């Protein structure tokens, strides 16, 4: 059995199929961890959802910000954006089955000393705390109040985590951390304005992986295509998976045992 972690698909279905073929991936034997953002921007978002769902237990998938946006558009009353490529999903005959499956995915996969989320894990959260906080969001997504949560999920506040946060503020802070985090301040405040490379850090902010931790988990994340799969200056065991397939880069798989990376070029 081989376990691979793959960066953001974002609708790159042809490349996903090509990558699995290159890996000689067999769902009866192997496992693939998908770092979120299965959909949006690319032309094959519907097929990516269907492909991932068809892999069954061989695929472990976390939610990214684009996946949550799809759910918010379909079930939370959010407006579709000009650059979105979600129409095929919303019009698909199997949309409800696909959306139910997506909505049941977690924000975190945690196994042994390895944790994967879409955007990473801040230094002030242990893997165990992060997993517990992610479960709070999963419980709300699986409840009758999921629509209200998806409707109220958007926003940049609160930008800094506090243990006494409650209600939608608490859930929003958890979601923003796991799906939108890039640069943070020493006190854990998130910045949502800078989205490019490391030289775009606002004053007083640094990439979350450049802060030390008291423990030593292996942290897998996508979300940040501008890093091109690298984590310069990292002070933790962080491994970037998003190599910008939808932007003309590549789709990359990381063998979790050997550390070997295999990529296929974008067809966009």
From TrEMBL:
It holds the Pfam family Metallophos. Keywords: Hydrolase. The keyword Hydrolase applies. InterPro entries: ApaH, Calcineurin-like_PHP, Metallo-depent_PP-like. It catalyses: P(1),P(4)-bis(5'-adenosyl) tetraphosphate + H2O = 2 ADP + 2 H(+). Residues 1-122 form the Calcineurin-like phosphoesterase domain. Its EC number is 3.6.1.41. CDD domains: MPP_ApaH. Gene3D superfamilies: 3.60.21.10. GO terms for molecular function: bis(5'-nucleosyl)-tetraphosphatase (symmetrical) activity. Transmembrane segments: none annotated. The keyword Hydrolase applies. Hydrolyzes diadenosine 5',5'''-P1,P4-tetraphosphate to yield ADP. Belongs to the Ap4A hydrolase family. This is bis(5'-nucleosyl)-tetraphosphatase (symmetrical). It comes from Halomonas organivorans.
